[in-house]
Design goal:
Number of strands: 2
Radius of gyration: 13 Å
Strand content: 5-15%
Number of helices: 3
Largest sheet: 2 strands, antiparallel
Helix content: 25-40%
Shape: globular
């Protein structure tokens, strides 16, 4: 899965993790008729870095057993490390 757009809307829990972790601001949370929010990706901004997929608790079942704060902390640390790696690769 390259980005979060491949996730079925019915499975999304609307947590906005993908929106918050997108380094290119390519994701907006859009409300449907019933008030549920789903991610919508601007493919012109998206670089398919995969951070949205890695931050998704629905896709990453191993994050579902953690309390929300612990999960966020683990994800934040992991994603910050990945951003540093991507940045380092960019300048090589």
């Amino acid at each position: 899965m390259k980005n979060i757009s491949e996730l079925e809307k019915e499975k999304c829990n609307g947590c906005s993790a993908c929106f918050n972790f997108c380094p290119k601001n390519a994701i907006v949370m859009q409300e449907n008729n019933e008030g549920f929010k789903y991610p919508v990706i601007d493919m012109e901004k998206c670089t398919n870095c995969g951070l949205c997929v890695k931050s998704c608790s629905v896709i990453n079942a191993n994050f579902q057993n953690y309390p929300p704060r612990a999960m966020f902390s683990l994800l934040w640390q992991k994603i910050q490390l990945e951003k540093k790696v991507l940045l380092a690769e960019f300048f090589l």
